[in-house]
Amino acid sequence: MAKLLAGLGTSHVPSIAAALDKGLRDSAEWKPFFDGYIPAQKWVADHKPDIAVVVYNDHGNSFFLDRVPTLALGVAENYRPADEGWGPRAVPDFQGADDFAWHLADRMVEGHFDPLICRELDVDHGLQVPMELVFGRPEAWPVKVVPILINTIQYPIPTPQRMWDLGRLLRRAIESYPTDEKVLVMGTGGLSHQLQGARAGFINPTADREWIARIGSDPERYRTMSREDYVEEFGSEGAELIMWLVMRGCMDETVNTLFDHYFAPASMTGAGMVLLENMR
Ligand code: DHB
Ligand code: FE
Predict the structure, then answer these.
(1) What gap in Å lies between CA 147 and CA 93, rounded to an integer?
(2) Which residue has the CA at smallest separation from atom 1 of ligand 1?
(3) 34: closest CA among 248, 212, 273?
(4) Is the pLDDT reported for residue 280 higher than 80?
(5) Is residue 4 pLDDT above 90, yes or no?
(6) 34-63 mean pLDDT
(7) What is the longest distance spanned by two Cα atoms in the chain?
(8) DSSP label at residue 240
(9) Residue nearest to atom 7 of ligand 1 (CA)
(10) C-alpha 236: how far from chain center
(11) Exactly one of 12, 103, 193, 261 is catalytic; which is it?
């Protein structure tokens, strides 16, 4: 059966991609941010996942406000990087784990999670940036991907508890897939940021650092918070952090936090990462 290798939570801020595109990786401003990912990159390269399940939100690039699925699943053989208005990026297409994704579709519907099924999808910075942060800039990505898209843009967004329950279901679905492939689950978004309204520019490094410190050891607090609590504590777009709960819900109750990293601000956002491993 397939194996859950690890869970990774990470920001997906678009300026990270812009910094890489402009050759600023080693600039004084960006180097400390990127260097914080090196241990996790090495661990993933050593442990060689076959499939990355990437939980992210589209930002008006593949779904606009006229059609917003609360939950969507990619089952395509291939995904193009979305052009978000700056022209095509030098990022390879993503190969889909389509057979595995159809298995997830079956298990999700059976477990009363009914996704929009996407046979064609351009993937935006929500997926591109985490892949670049973990796998660098390869000629071809070393893993196949399954995009799982959560609406965190148009209210009502799903509840933290619902995200956790989706994670529990995904764990069972991964472990009932009849190959010996290794699966890395990535929860993306955050950390604190607000791009709109009276609090535009709001970040909350104290809450972010606590999130990074506690999402592995004590996720209960975050699972039971309301959506309004997320907006208040992390900002309206910081509420993207609910997507990390899908990843955390996949993992055992007790996990080992292998690596973590926090940096603020990246653009107007608290940014960071955790890599979690089950104990047994
Ligand atoms: C920005 C966009 C994002 O999707 C995000 O998660 C953080 C920051 C931005 O445009 O700055
Ligand atoms: Fe985002």
Answers:
(1) 13
(2) 13
(3) 273
(4) no
(5) yes
(6) 98
(7) 51
(8) G
(9) 13
(10) 17
(11) 193
**C-beta of 12 in contact with ligand 1 (< 6 A):** yes
ipTM given for this complex: 0.97
pLDDT at 87 over 90: no
Q: What is the pLDDT of residues 110-160, one digit of tens each?
A: 999 999 999 999 999 999 999 999 999 999 999 999 999 999 999 999 999
The catalytic position among 12, 59, 125, 261 is 125
- pLDDT tens digits for range 237-272: 999 999 999 999 999 999 999 999 999 999 999 999
Task: Specify the CATH superfamily of domain 3-202+210-272.
Answer: LigB-like (3.40.830.10)
Q: Can you tell me the distance from the alpha carbon of 280 to that of 267, in angstroms, rounded to the nearest whole number? A: 38
State whether the beta carbon of 268 lies less than 6 angstroms from ligand 1.
yes
Cα R_g (the chain), whole angstroms: 17
53 has which bridge partners? Answer: 146, 185
Tokens representing 64 are 């606009």
Residues 189 and 16: their CA atoms lie apart, in Å, by 12
Lookup result for tokens 């009914």? 114
The token pair at 58 is 């589209």
